[in-house]
């Protein structure tokens, strides 16, 4: 190639022209080993011979193909000859059979396992020059960077989506839904078995539709071998059989083992895997090492989310079980007695508190009943009430006289509090109710520092029972008051905690509800059934509070129904977190 072969192009458009105007691509200049400005001058210098241009272009990183006006190759650089072995000097360029050489401008194409970029430049005299560059490495690096960015973005979305579900079922559904379509066309998650059964979730996607999720249960003996192996913490290596096992399990409907490729990855847990993830997609998209590493990274995040959800579920189950054991128990059925209860803890979200009530049936047909309040609030107070109730359940079998039973309870409390250094105490009304032949009820009540009960007479009068006594759990031999009350048919005795009378509200929000307002609230309610009366006391107290903070509230009412009275019905008013305006739970 001589200087005459590269003359005639316009120097302003970057084409080869006169020797002094030859434009060399930046990469070509770097290949020579110095910047473009450092190239030897192409114009003949006085006193020096004109250089051999073929020696210069042979060192370009780009290959050069120069064609005459008829399209016949008249010059082929060594780089172009190596990249396009089909092209030969003296032959037509189109005869090489490379479609990209027939087009003008810039084109990029795959050729013999490499990625080439070709750029056509017109020369003077209807000649042309084609620059050919191997861009395989740069394209590979760019693709790898884009792929890594896509993987990082995917894992970031996974971390965000899996940070919220705190229930294993919802977390499992979210895991398989996120898997499709990035990692698989069908994804199956099998959780670690419980009680010999394993739950599974599957997400599948048809065309461009959103993934659909379904679930099922398998016995541990019916799990595919690869899944059982994965649940032991080992990633199966025999991948050829995974698709067949997935098809046999019915997880790949409408597909055969030849249609798909599959991988199984365990999901890390605390000690053993939280589950196993099976991913499958068309056999045309084989899982390479980068894909498998992405599946493993996804599995690590999914395993952490599922482990957290399972731990939260286990803790919630324990908390629910403990709460259920600490909730007040409805009184037992007694002939001629209608019970009414209402309960509202200070912390509605806990459902439990320091107030308690209940009853135990006696062999003679009567019943021991009680309502009390321990010092403190929340979980610690609720635990203490549970201890008291357990003591009463045991002690009433050896002593049914109210005053003596209350003293036995006092001794048990002292022993417990001194052993644990708690220093807790309680107030309580404990009584024994016995039906009479005429339909009346005889109530013998003992007081341990609690508020005096109220009696709603058939005449409409409200009486305060003169019951006094000392706190329970403070001194070894407390003074216990005792009184006997007779309830005629249709009359009611009302027991309540200080959460009612000490509720603060009103216009300024700091005025106590008080004993007088309570008496006024129940005056005229002597014909009201016991459940409705207990609910009314709880409701007027909450209205007075106006959603403000309050102590635990407990109400126990017992009404003499007389002979042939209706069976008792209880209202259990445990509010939801929304407050008194929401519907309360009612139990028949």
TrEMBL record:
Region (Disordered): 1-51, 561-588
Keywords tagged on the record: Hydrolase
PANTHER family recorded: STAGE II SPORULATION PROTEIN E, STAGE II SPORULATION PROTEIN E-RELATED
SMART domains referenced in this protein's UniProt entry, alphabetically: PP2C_SIG (SM00331)
SUPFAM superfamilies: GAF domain-like, PP2C-like
Entries under Gene3D superfamilies matching the protein: 3.30.450.40, PPM-type phosphatase domain (3.60.40.10)
Domain PPM-type phosphatase intervals: 337-560
Coiled coil: none
The protein's name: Serine phosphatase RsbU, regulator of sigma subunit
Xref: InterPro entries: Bact_Sigma-Reg (IPR052016), GAF-like_dom_sf (IPR029016), PPM-type-like_dom_sf (IPR036457), PPM-type_phosphatase-like_dom (IPR001932)
MF GO annotations: phosphatase activity
